[in-house]
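Re: Re: token formats

Sure, here are both.
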Amino acid sequence: MTTTLPPQPEQVDSKGLKGGALSLLSSVVIGVASTAPAYSLAASLGFIVASGGALLAGVKAPGIVILAFIPMYLIAVAYQELNKAEPDCGTTFTWSARAFGPITGWLGGWGIVAADVIVMANLAQVAGSYSFIFAGDLGLSGVADLANDPFWSTVAGVIWIAVMTYICYRGIELSARIQYVLLSIEILVLVLFSIFALVRVYTGTAESYSLIPSLDWFNPFTLDFSTVIAPAILTAIFIYWGWDTVVSINEETENPTKTPGRAAIISTLLLLGTYALVTVAAVAFAGVGTSGIGLGNETNAADVFSAIGPALFGSSVLGHAAALLLAVSILTSAAASTQTTILPTARTTLSMAVFRALPEKFARIHPRFLTPTWSTIAMGAVSIGFYVLFTLISIQLLGALIGSIGLMIAFYYGLTGFACVWYYRKTMWSSFRNVIMRGLFPLLGGLSLTAVFIYGLQQYALADWLVDENGDNVTIFGIGAVAVVGIGALLLGVVIMVIWWVVKSDYFRGRTLPRHTDGDPAPVAQIAPAQNTRDDGPTSALPE
């Protein structure tokens, strides 16, 4: 029997990934790009403003966006502090297992995997559709009509997933360079969109139902928490979700104990400013009405920018160019996020395989590119399968995915907050700074996301929460589809966990990833972690 110590901060390149490949700037770019700002706003803003054609947050949408930032920041602090203790690419999986034990850790890892696989269906659908819209705007007659064709948009979406999977397979540095270009286009267009919309509103050249921004828009506390704020925040946290990618690539970052945490904090702050500006501009120009381009119109919910663009920019040559740029930003946003969604999932499953919580094949590293091989390819293949399956069942179900992803985000982000408090429970009292950063902030983040999860789930389970274009309820077994997809995905994880426990129980017996609390002696694993298999022979996944 072999004994091995858990990875220490100075040994973070032990899984075979390319250490030191990313700077702070590269990490921030990946963190912001991972949230897909343009796509996230296009797909979520309508659902924050209204649900099923009835107003939800309404003009208070900017306030909801800011309110949703608070738990995101608090959890980003938890990620930063836990990463200092153990910069492992498994993030929530590893930290939760250390704090609470193998079952909780496995479910935390599954939360990441499930959320990423499900969101890929949305990303692929948007990328596929906008590919044809963009081609049509370039003058290719008849091509734009294919955007509404389920078959061809699905084919294009599958191609996007395959291409981005290949890029992730080829190396983290190539992924970062591509993100620089895609994110630059995206942010520039969003800022120009906001400025143009606000200028038209304040100069009186906007729509008749446009609104002048008010400070009251930033006060969501006049709304009911259980029926309005909680479900709206579950949708709003979707637009912030993704910054944790910068922590999942910690083993490939310069100064891995500090840089990923700093990048996570910076990413959330940059997103707050971007989202607040764009949300105010969109609400002001389009209004929250339930007809026309109003954000309360359920027909606009899936893509508010497509509805706003023609009215905002007009039909002139300059207006056509601006609308084309907006389409490009959403296309590049969805494509960029497709790529950065594969990155954390592949590294989560890599870490799980190293600690034998998944088959050891997922721990394999490419000898040249130093990227997870099986984990990356499996993520792409499973995402394609899930996307095609949901498309065949019902296109409307894709609309249920955003809310269900919010449930899983709240689950594993909240779990990370609690794991931080429990991991540092013995040493946080050493300074006032640690009490706040390792105790209070993570605890508040975990509690707030738990409350949002519970109250949001109650609303999502209502049969009439989501309706299709014919006004029919979108349900599964008579329960709201959003709730069923979210909870069903988590329960599927329980089933897979039990199956793997029966097949191989080393991890679940605490033999490869023992529980550990800051301040206690480092635990000793009873069984050596899995080994990475490369073309040049097996190399130890973790140093003995």
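Second one below.
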Amino acid sequence: MSAPRVDVIIVNYNTCERTIECIESVPRGANSAFRVILVDNGSSDGSVERIGAACPDVKIIDVGENIGFARGVNRGVAESDAVYVLLLNPDTTVLSGSLEALVAFAELNPEYGIYGGRTVTEDGSLDPSSCWGAPTLWSLACFATGASTAFKQSAALDPESLGGWARDTVREVPVVTGCLLLVGRADWQRIGGMDERFFLYGEDAEFSARARAAGYRPVIVPEAVIQHDVGGSTGSTGRKMAMVMAGKVTYLWCVWTAPAALAGVLLLQAGAGLRAGLEVATRSAKRTWRDVWANRRAWRKGYPSAERTLFGRQPRLVSRQLRVQAEPAFRTEGANPYNGSLYRSIQVHGAHVRDLQYWRLVTHRTDVVHLHWPELSFLSGSRCSLHIVRLALFYSALAFARLRGTVLVWTVHNVTSHEERSSPHIRRVAQGLLIRNVDGIIALSEQGIDAARQAYPQLVDVPAAVTAHGHYRNEYDFAVRPDEARKSLNLPADGPVIVAIGQLRPYKNIPHLIEVFRSLDSDATLLIAGKPSPIELEQQIREAAGDDPRVVLDLRFVPDEDIPVVLAASDLVVLPYSRIQNSGSAILAASADRPVLVPDLGAMRELQTQLGEEWVQLFDGELTAEDLKAAIEWATTSRQDARPNLAPLEWDVIGEHTLDAYRLFRATRQRNRRRLSQPWRASGTGSVLLSPQ
């Protein structure tokens, strides 16, 4: 098996000769898995021309100005289409075999997600800067009192140094630095890339913090070794240290709560003052900390405002990242990749997304709370007391967060729940709380907005947005051949195969599909793949199938690796729902280039318009034998090698539209609050519909 392709991202600024040395140390060539993408931040030493001439195989992005490390890295990654991206400083030299060892470890140990290595100086001694401990109030207190300097590499008094560990064993760490950092490109997008508020220093610590929050485990791989000329392109030590301090301050405000961040900044300032005073008292020739102290008004505000003093340039205006808590965001990807794909695309466009936690609503600034299936979030399980506790905790935390401007968004996947959870009274209370608190609704179709407002007239004056349901083409390996798929599933090699796939619920009408199919005189095969719920449904399905050998039942949860196999074996996917608003299963079928038969309900007619009648066929009322017979003939006689055009369902566009919706809802709520605070003005909110068209 060939090694996965890796794009090495190098950000260069006026270090032409050293950068060429770095590039030359990267294993390149026709048979290499590594490609170099160089981002030049407006160098004045002829770097673009000279590097281009010395390394013609390198892809060079000439930014034309110094946009800093975080923004430069993001520009480079945006040009990548490789499996992995690897950040590499221009003042490094890669030792032979190191990058290959790093990628090999990542392939064998995908659970870590973020991978760093070991850095050494020119004489081969350890340079500890490949990783650090995360700042804490204790570590900053040690800095403020001078303990971290007096007791260097002490696990207790210099905790950010990670003690005397020589980086010579595999070990999880809080921070992998950007001098050598490997991550899957899809994981990079999920984490959200580098925060562009940072200019230089601190962005890798904040990136690692977000990665850990998303469930990744940054790790050091000792076999991956680079020589690192630390700080080779940052000028004087005082200026460099001021940039480090600005990065730390920015990290604190990004990651910590406001009171803790303020305390941390005061501790940093105290430590800088102590060291500046010691330089004066000892008449030291070094001015490192005196320069840092002199520039404290710049760095204690953090980036981007620190750019003005530290770099003599007006800071680039970077819009503040929206902080989103979603229920769910990434935690349900194992069952359905919809939410994970949505929030990765949102993070690519600049938001910071986490799964909802009640305590975080109270302790952290949150701009948007986004609910998808409230009945699953709050009313799951059989204990009504637990449902009441969840509702009380969530809406109490939300009330506190709303004082700081948090808005509540609801994606109305279904107007009514497919399953009745909890008691009727608690369901009514839960629905009432949601409708009274929601600031904006999102639906996956225009019809979905209309259906929501008809079901809940209180939503008429609530702003709404339409965002499509994205495709699954990039989530599964759909390269399985039909003949191989049928063989692995023990299905007939000849004759049509009809498939119903997904979680099997009563409203999906599977027993009726089986009865209709069995009434046909056909050589077709019907495959039912999915886990029934409730348990009584499984018995109904088995009774409907009887002993008909043409009906194949695979009544288990279908793991991700089997989904493409089931779809590849099919000629037609049938979804005979008795009620439906949207269907991820229909889009899954189209993602696998399979035609689908669906009822003319909910948004299915809009889906047919999006994908075309050659891929989506509708039936009226309850599925009949005539409907199924005609659909089998349609699917098996008109299929060609063409693929449905899924451009309307691209996640990148959907993420952008979702962010637009968030901004609309926030702006509308702010306007409404101003109207309430000024009662002499005209009242009435009106209704705003934001559509992707």
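Residues 651-677 form the longest helix (27 residues). Confidence is low (pLDDT under 50) at residues 231-235, 680-687.
- S.
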